[in-house]
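Please, why this fold?
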Amino acid sequence: MRQRWEWLVACSVVSLVGIGWLLARIGAPADAWPAIEIAGMVLCAVVAIAAHLRGAAKKWPAAVALACALPMAQNLVLSFPLTMELMLRSGVPYLLFLVGAVGAVAAAIAILVARPPLEASDQIVAKAPARR
């Protein structure tokens, strides 16, 4: 389960790096950060990091992260022609922003849909035959 949380952390942090880089490149003011989508990605990253550090076995943090990241990914996907134009004009920062947001949603869905791994006590261990 830890690897799934690592994917969610990585995607959300990549998106935040892309957002920060993009806002710095276009010279956006400091008050541009409180937009609901950007705040959602920040919250998604915080939830993912907390779940990863705690080694969460439950799936509810992924549902919270999905709810936080979904507005950003939805806006990016629904405005696809504009998204492609912005990616061509802005370059790597927008690509990181786009891939991170969509990847965070995909990772959260994968955590919610996938079967959790077996606990160490539930795994079947084959016994080797005793040789004398």
